[in-house]
């Protein structure tokens, strides 16, 4: 019975806050949290771009290209050792 009373109190509180349901409240809270996380990521990217003088998209493309070449060389060397 305690759970039912708590649920009812929570539901009433959420409605008093202007939400139609607990689900609407939870969705709004999740949305706000995600927006906060996105803003943190955007700020981190901006700091990276300012610090290194390159935009993150170009860095990621260059880095991926470099990593692929590196991995191909390692795979070739490993195959040579195994054969």
Keywords:
3 helices; single chain
Write the layout of secondary structure elements.
Blueprint: H1 2-16, H2 22-52, H3 56-82
How is this structure best described in words?
- It contains 3 helices and no strands.
- It starts with a helix and ends with a helix.
- With about 80 residues, the chain is mostly helical.
- The longest helix is centred in the middle third of the chain and has 31 residues, at about 20-50.
- The protein is elongated, with a radius of gyration of 25 Å.
- It has helices at about 1-15, 20-50, 55-80.
The number of helices is 3
Shape: elongated
User: What fraction, in percent, of the residue positions are helical?
Assistant: over 70%
Major sheet, described briefly? none
Spell the H/E element sequence: HHH
* Beta-strand fraction estimate: under 5%
C-alpha Rg, in Å?
Answer: 25 Å
Unreliable stretches (pLDDT < 50, length at least 5) are none
Helix-strand makeup class:
mainly alpha
Averaged pLDDT: 85
Give a short overview:
This protein has helices at 2-16, 22-52, 56-82. It is mostly helical and 83 residues long.
């Amino acid at each position: 019975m305690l759970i039912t009373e708590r649920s009812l109190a929570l539901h009433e509180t959420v409605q008093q806050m202007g939400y139609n349901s607990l689900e609407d409240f939870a969705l709004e809270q999740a949305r706000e949290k995600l927006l906060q996380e996105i803003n943190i990521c955007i700020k981190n990217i901006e700091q990276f771009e300012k610090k290194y003088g390159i935009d993150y998209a170009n860095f990621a493309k260059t880095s991926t290209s470099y990593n692929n070449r590196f991995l191909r060389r390692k795979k070739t060397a490993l195959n040579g050792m195994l054969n």
